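pls ignore typos typing on phone
magnesium ion + seq
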Amino acid sequence: MSATPSLELLAPLSGVLIELDQVPDPVFSSRMIGDGLCIDPTSGVLCAPLAGVVSNLQASGHAISITDDQGVQVLMHIGLDTVQLAGKGFTARVREGERVVAGQALIEFDADYIALHARSLLTLVLVVSGETFTRPAAANGLIASGEPLMRIERNASPAGALVEEEGEALFSSPVTLPNANGLHARPAAVLAQAAKGFAASICVHRRQDSANAKSLVAIMALQTVRGDVLQVSAVGEDAQAAVDALAALLADGCGEAVEPAAAVVVPVVVEAPSPTLLRGVCASPGSAFGRVVQVAEQQLDVPEFGGDEAHERASLERALDEATRALQTLRDNAEGSAQAQIFHAHQELLEDPSLLEQAQVLLTQGKSAAFAWRQATEDTCALFERLGSHLLAERALDLKDVGQRVLRLILGVQERVAELPDDAILIADQLTPSQTAGLDTRRVLGFATVGGGATSHVAILARAFGLPALCGLSAEVLKVPAGTQVLLDADLGRLHLMPEEADVQRLLLKRQEQRQRRQRETEQAAEAALTRDGHRVEVTANVASLQEVEQSLTLGGEGVGLLRSEFLYLERQSAPGVEEQSATYSAIARALGPARNLVVRTLDVGGDKPLAYVPMDSEANPFLGMRGIRLCLQRPELLRQQLRAILACAGLTQLHIMLPMITQLSELRQARQFLEDEALALGLKALPKLGIMIEVPAAALMADLFAPEVDFFSIGTNDLTQYTLAMDRDHPQLASQADSLHPAVLRLIATTVKAAHAHGKPVSVCGALASEALAVPVLLGLGVDELSVSVPLIPAIKAAVREVGLPECQALAQQILGLENAGQVREALLDHQQTTAVEPRVLEN
Ligand code: PEP
Ligand code: MG
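k done
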């Protein structure tokens, strides 16, 4: 792609232009973040000053960066100290990763609210990639949104580009971030500025994510929060000094006044760098001992020029068609699984208009189809990788994968398949999703890669296959000779190149014990789950695909207790149609057959899980906002269509419909009315069973009023715990306290069961607590009738039911309800487990 040497930026707002020197905030006036201009706004919508991709949108909605295809990066920051408004007053109109055109609305803001609650409304427009610019307009004049604001001279190499240094990375000790609002623009600028003072390549790491420490936008894109545990790494001459200085700066708040963050106990394993041990990030848990197979990328010879333009164009189109068909076949063969969703995403990449347009331009310049296609995909991948967002970087991997697929088809080259021993541990710079999806899991025991991330498609596939996997290893791993015996310990993030015999033996023994126990449990999985005294507990599955349903049946699942229907709605640009939905529900219903229960939970999105096609206001507190049934009742057509689609499988199975996040009786009544209307329109005589999730304390406390109006309750302990204890279910520092075994949660379960049974209605538990073997005695003792659990754990939960007797569970539950905290409950359950730990029961056939 050829770039024009200069670029015109448009004013993102109407208002009064102010020079940066006059901004009453040294972080901006000193140009530490970047040079630019300031506007005192008279309009309330911030628009894109240039075309590009939203490379960062701060969770609090007050700052956004756009990066164009040549790397020019512009940061807009609305107001001063507005991060403290925590999103109030700002409504984002775009999402991170979205491509925008110049002039497109990005963020709406409530100028009155911000003016009253923040220091200032002054809005900064800063060129953070370092280019110089000239100003067409006179200073201190008025400017209207969309008018030319400045002209940027493009640099040959942008200042923020990361220069890769060779060598061993040094890591700092973990630092707990003390800044109340994480590394937002101000502290991120101070950190980036300090990092630029060192020659070393420097990264800031938070769990599996990392950012170039010299890039302000990349640091902001980490979306850190107070209490995050960060590490600094550096490679290069002054690496040690850089690591020490930047870790100290982070601990001190990067120029912000901070209170010391609550101490977080992080087990730090300080190990001398050792060539026999490589560290990475766990992408999929487990461990394996096997022989190294190095998987190198297939190099293809691509001629720059080809035949005439029409011929090359036809050749590209043919290859794109063939690739789309091949992906469709792979999708059909994997229907309902994680693989199918990934191949679908690849098909969508093949239709990306900007990618195709780039290739077409090159064809008109006489380039060959292969050259044009490779150039277009490589440029787009490079853009994704540059943007500093780990999500986009991971999509780059998908694009490389699908790009190679098309390239091979244009060139008529077969994919090379490596010969594998039957204990292969694959090592690669990166594995593509296609390679991972096609792995022979009888021979491959695990893999380790330099690139990739724990949220990548490759990691998702590894988890689906149960293959241990590490990512983020140093490039040293690519030099390990093929055939070397290695110990891959993904749980601890380690690859041992010369494992001690004792370590291998310990690992093999642990695995053998686990395997034996799992085998015993799996052999007995098809048998009913009866307590020692013959009380039957139904054990069903929590699923989100047809494949999981099928797997659950092979593992002794007795039906589906929770179908999370969100999988049909997420990661797409428009809502699934009634036909598409009903085809999926019907396939699942057929797999279960007429005698088993299928509980379809209606759409539970909103708040933290927004849908691209359902515009929602950003919310300061999404878990307390328009979630679940609230969103569906606000958009009745969404719910009506889903109910229509679900009703299409009535008669194929024992159909149940379940409503999430019910808080008020009126919500249940309104949803029932919709169901009755839709059933009537379809001419159905009998309604399916209708139940609700008990996951809001209000519903548990009023279960006696809900019970007469429902057919069943299912307790969502994940949400019930977060709402009862007022602890975010994903909060890293509260994770150990947000325990579903807290007596307060157990008391709500007891209340729910009592009310349901008084009206003859059954109760299941479908939250993660049901999948915890330790919790089984207390749940049975409280009277729960059904446990709906994560698929791989069905055999283990059935085994746990068989170990106990109902009367002893009832006594234990009563005792537990009187305890003070979750720790005491866990202790009581462990004591109970030890006293009942006898030889596993042998079931008579
Ligand atoms: C729950 O909240 O316990 C539950 C099962 O629902 P989800 O985890 O899907 O919110
Ligand atoms: Mg829930």
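The domain at 531-835 is CATH 3.20.20.60 (TIM Barrel). DSSP finds 26 helices and 36 strands in the chain. more later
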